[in-house]
Amino acid sequence: MKKTCLTLITVLMVLSILSIAAHAGPPTTAEGLWQYIPTIEDVRVANGNTFIHITEVGQWTGTFEGVSTEEGTVVRHSSGFVSFKGKVSFVGSVGDRSGTLEMRVVGEKPDQLPGTEWEGKWVILSGTDGLATLHGHGTWWGPGWNSAHPTEWGNINYSGKIHFDPE
């Protein structure tokens, strides 16, 4: 009897999980261009590493169409390695739906030399309005912002997978 009950509970759990997955929208490819201009808010040095707190304004084209503000920290490690961790607040549209998104972005590049490109990851944390049920994650890469040309947009390509939950 116990074995039958346990089997029945297991089957019901599997069916409920499959049911949830069947109701989610199919994943689609997200891709486009994210451009940004940073503003340095604060710089501090500790143990040979430089921590640069920045805010950014951004504009997105492609799957994500809209504007953003970002806040994050660039770390120039004593080894020359550079890393970034930030949060993006996006306002715009994805397909025929509009709203806001919060995304976490992390990235790195091997050194500070010109021509070295950034690469990183992004994930959607939350959304509102028409984007409240949007989920996704992916990668980003590109040359980024060039401090020698501070008024020019930094270019980052993005790609990944997104899907909307059923409403």
Architecture blueprint of SSEs:
Elements: H1 2-23, E1 28-46, E2 49-62, E3 64-76, E4 82-94, E5 97-109, E6 118-127, E7 134-144, E8 154-164
Antiparallel strand pairs: 1-2, 1-8, 2-3, 3-4, 4-5, 5-6, 6-7, 7-8
Q: Can you tell me the CATH superfamily?
A: SO1590-like
CATH architecture: Beta Barrel
How do the SSEs run, as a string of H and E? HEEEEEEEE
Q: Can you identify the CATH class? A: Mainly Beta
**In this structure, how is the largest beta sheet organized?**
8 strands, antiparallel, barrel
Report on the structure:
This protein is mainly beta and 167 residues long. It has a single domain (26-164), classed as Beta Barrel (AOC barrel-like), CATH 2.40.350.10. 13% of the residues lie in helices and 62% in strands. The protein has one helix at residues 2-23, and strands at 28-46, 49-62, 64-76, 82-94, 97-109, 118-127, 134-144, 154-164. Strands 1-2-3-4-5-6-7-8 form an eight-stranded antiparallel beta barrel. A hairpin with a 5-residue loop joins strand 3 and strand 4. It starts with a helix and ends with a strand. Mean pLDDT is 87; it is low at 2-22.
